């Protein structure tokens, strides 16, 4: 359930060309019959069928969408039905075996068992490149299934428009209303070889085009339109002949897709594209060079690092045009526009990681967020946005954390005053998630807006971020205002229980409180045990409130060791046994900072022990190597930081809490041309504790390191030992 | 059934702001229940209800679409249901009385009985301007019904997107699949006064946006999207307070609509817009100044002239951007882009009229057709196109006639070689309407493509037009080729019956021929009696084939005087008793040239008598003043020419056949600054015959006049008499 995909993508590329391993009949007896959650990224390793290769996939999300433009090569009698996975001849899908499947960054290949077609995929940023090696056949087909979707509810397809421009070029678009409510993706599809014949079948219930009666629209008629269309293109192929397809995407127009196609891949050399994309991956992945304790650790590390660079994705044409949130076409001015902002997840460690190894891209992402704000009819920064849509998923307004963290780290090549205005607008929207109450009575009542404790805590932290941005902008009245708001977390702390708890609008605590239950207790995707610890900007104060350092350290011990009853895990897609240690949930985000909190109790060794244990048990070099959704790279970013020995507990602070490095040595190659060396002494699987830290030749007498110390370049040496210090 | 509308429009404007007089429940017992044909233009004089005012209407078509963005002002309890016409309180509609209704070019007003709201409408080219005068109310509403449509089949709405930008500005778009299969219209709606509250109701069967659950989307939430939406905006109003709305359209984007709004109406002065638009109308209508025999004739003449300037419509934003046939955004380069080309109708007299009084616009229309061709995946000129779509209505490829006529008349400010290429591409498309057979065996077999005789005859004429264009381009091989094709009409003439008749692909005549039946006999919207006479480019040859001048003259007499059995009229929407004289159908197009054919038989007086009789009986100054659909201005253009005394029997020839002027005198004010005077002597209702014609002081000894003679300026004097000459 990591929800990653094995297909081909360039770093941060708009195209994620990857197989769909199942596509059951959408409706059985009038009921929707597909496990949407399971197929968030289209691929499940346990499946043995492939239904085709589509061009857009989320990486690691817990909600689904995309899956655009499924292509499937077949031979024999044309069958436009996908069919049912269990029945081999029921449709165009094929069985496959993992032994015939191969994936590396920017490349994927598989042998389709029935047709013996070898499928190979690579991609540039905006263009997917398919190569299908056929056996000799005079009935070879390339199916373009425009009905196939991820999040495939009935009627997700809003409209489809296809033009067969000539005997080897097809353009068009598809408009969907799925998780993104109003979404259009344009394409240009270029074949390496002229098709001999083409056609389509329309599955619409109503067809208005009476005047098309004079044509046989279904065969060799070059304009297709409707809600539900499957097209095919026929070829004669020789033994081992490759039919190649370049498939470009655009959010703007088919004209834009054609520009992208011509600019990025103006030739038919599949291996050249593969090589170029892999060079890009090597450049990105070598931003951190490690020497690991074991070969397996190295694979896990670089797999994680790879997963941090699959989204946000570039979301503009080669000429800088993109579709904005207002559905108008905009031109990015001095930046590259990005989309897919899963911010409740990624503010924690992914964007901080970008500030370290992708500062240029992170600034562009911030500029993309500001453009989103400027185009937003709500005057808000993104909450969870993708493809010119705000889907409002999860809580908080964590764009502000991304901005604050960039400022704290000197990554400020954007208009800070503009950013501060956007943050203020976002945090004062009176119809968003109980903010009206929050601003009026300093907390959100549960009877007004559910998950009120989670919201109040996250707003408090976000408001602290805004105060930091105000500080950067030298707007001290705003700073004061938001520092005050940042203290709102105290209003939901119940001294008598020791937990953050939901209040009602009357001001009294909501009765029947269960601190282990994740449902109905004022929290979202977490319980009071976990969520009460989310005060990253006031950790000392939180610890004081909760009884002081010793009591807090014991509280963390309890969290990691208590037995959690099954009833608290059932009905939680995002919380499964795989990702749980006691009552700590590593498989989901709200607790990701918790293992590092021992650092504030004087028991740093417990953090060191715990993070090493989590790295060893919650990440693996297997199909189920993640203990929960990768969540657009957040789970992987946690690993990357932790493996290097430090973690951004409070994004916006410019500080990293020191954990325990898993690597032997590492070099962080910075964009400023400098490098930061991470070295260990006496590193081993048992030596998880740190006895001494030397930063640039001087002992570091604290348990955190500053971002500014890293980007100055230099080296840090961790002396490791097998005994807690 | 003229299918004109009484609302406000600027000459050739994109906005036609006009009332919808009925909008019954779309479905009764699961069955579609609206008379689409009857409501082609949204308005029927016999109705006494108004459902609102929408912004787009065809003028005079026999098929329907459009009806975008219906606005209705109401007071009292909000009711978003349109309701049923017969039940007063069943919905937001209102009764009205014709005595409280007033219409003139560019202005329409009506009193809504129930609410006592006075509605006034005017329009610039791209912006509709509403003014609603209320009685005092604290429950005044402006309803924006985005579900209301003309051609209102279930599911015509594909998608709707609305943003409430601030308390008085709303933007959005609606995408429909009606007659135009893939159509989007964008809008910007500016209120003169801030609304106090707004909201919408969504009528979709499925709503995907689970994540919107945290909002009450239905009230004061500024983004609305779905297939079926009705929005409302609430106001408090004082007695006699006017709430005004400027409503701009664009085919490009909401940004484009806003540009149009700001450029065309940057103020709130309703009367100023009305005045400016009426000045434009006066400028256009005074291109022909007449002195009529009776005041009523004058009204009829200028009503007809008005109807010739409602379409084609300007179809680009003020900055020249427009959505092309390929759905990409294009910039018009050196021309204004037009749409709504009902060419099977309008090639006959409307475009020839444009060559006379709107030569500049006609060239832009030709450039628009060429752009259509360049954007067409079929490489074809428009057949019947509107709003970035080809709807393939009716037959022939009469764009070529429009081009040939412009060339013949020296109106050649376009690339003739490009035009010739476009004509060749259009006329050689092998999947269009039997053209493959036509090119191979010189006629279209009825068993291959129905209406084969009509198609063969019209293709023959069109091919003659292409030969004329080739002549203009000095491409003499093409000229020869198409002159040969232009003779194909002979292949379907059956000497034994004297009629054009359908052949089968075997080469034999299709059996059971009925020359009076309009169905199944090889013709479309006409029978063999009428359609056999469609050889406008080879009239002498046709007459020879049909037995010579005398026999042909008698044949025409029979046509005009025979009794047509009711069975031949039933089931013909476009052919009704109102428009029939004997077996001649003036209410539909295929015969419009026929009254003038006597001129080729030596019996010119019969033409003179007949056209005067048609003008007197088939046109009137009443709600039912047209004898059939105005057909985008063709019916009216016939009248305008005929009233002046001449008619373009063969567009592309540069000649006008002389009929009998109805006017006393007329001045045609030409764009070249010259004017052409039409004068009569002894003109009266009885004196329908011409005894002598003096052109610029010299007797004209022929029964036609050349376009070149008119545009040189000067005067023609018709001496009238009551006796046939």
UniProtKB/TrEMBL annotation, chains A, B:
UniProt-listed InterPro entries: 6-hairpin_glycosidase_sf (IPR008928), GH-type_carb-bd (IPR014718), GH92_a_mannosidase_put (IPR005887), GH92_N (IPR041371), Glyco_hydro_92 (IPR012939), PNGase (IPR050883)
Record keywords, A-Z: Hydrolase
Listed GO biological process terms: carbohydrate metabolic process; glycoprotein catabolic process
Boundaries of every Glycosyl hydrolase family domain copy: 257-721
Domain of life: Bacteria
Keyword Hydrolase: yes
Any one Gene Ontology molecular-function term assigned to this protein's record: peptide-N4-(N-acetyl-beta-glucosaminyl)asparagine amidase activity
A GO CC term assigned to this protein in UniProt: cytosol
UniProt domain Glycosyl hydrolase family 92 N-terminal: residue ranges: 2-250
NCBIfam families: aman2_put
Gene3D superfamilies xref list: 2.70.98.10, alpha-1,2-mannosidase (1.20.1050.60), alpha-1,2-mannosidases domains (1.20.1610.10), GH92 mannosidase domain (3.30.2080.10)
Protein name (record): Glycosyl hydrolase family 92
UniProt cross-references to PANTHER family, sorted A to Z: PEPTIDE N-GLYCANASE PNGASE -RELATED (PTHR12143), SECRETED PROTEIN (PTHR12143:SF39)
UniProt KW Signal keyword: no
